[in-house]
Specification:
155 residues, alpha+beta, four-stranded mixed sheet, disordered C terminus
């Protein structure tokens, strides 16, 4: 409990703050406290508040670019760790595509740009943009380009 593993998931480990509550009894053992329902409610509320804040940051493109540059790995890991919030986290992810070479795009924006009749999303993963561009599999398809080890693990 010293490092608050029970209060916040690992993918949100970069979040810092103080939790003040009157709902936790003070005179109990650590083991009893770890099983306390109130801790689960606090954890759920902390995650919800964090995601609300991230969504608010995403409303401002420049602010979100700075945030995403620093914490995109955490959001990507959250997709795997937090099944309850997977859809909310997925809306925050950004990808490079053949249509948006220099600027990452959200999945929602990518789907909106899909040509009529395209039912599938094609993607390729790689260590770098250069490695992905050299892939013989591209062949003129509209692709979402996923780079880095987190993406390789995800798919």
């Amino acid at each position: 409990m010293d490092n608050c593993e029970e209060l916040i998931p690992e993918y949100l480990g970069f979040v810092r703050g103080i939790v003040d509550t009157e709902d936790l009894p003070l005179n109990i053992s650590r083991e009893t406290l770890q099983q306390n329902r109130v801790l689960k409610v606090i954890r759920r509320n902390l995650v919800r508040k964090c995601l609300e804040l991230f969504e608010k940051i995403a409303e401002n493109k420049e602010d979100f670019e700075k945030f995403y540059e620093q914490f995109s790995k955490n959001l990507k890991l959250g997709i795997h760790e937090d099944t309850d919030n997977r859809l909310r986290l997925a809306k925050l992810l950004r990808y490079f595509s053949t249509k948006s070479e220099d600027e990452p795009t959200s999945l929602t924006e990518y789907v909106a740009r899909m040509p009529e009749g395209q039912k599938d999303i094609y993607f390729i993963t790689g260590e770098s943009k250069k490695a992905v561009e050299k892939s013989p599999f591209i062949g003129g398809l509209p692709l979402s380009r996923l780079r880095g080890p987190v993406h390789d693990r995800a798919h």
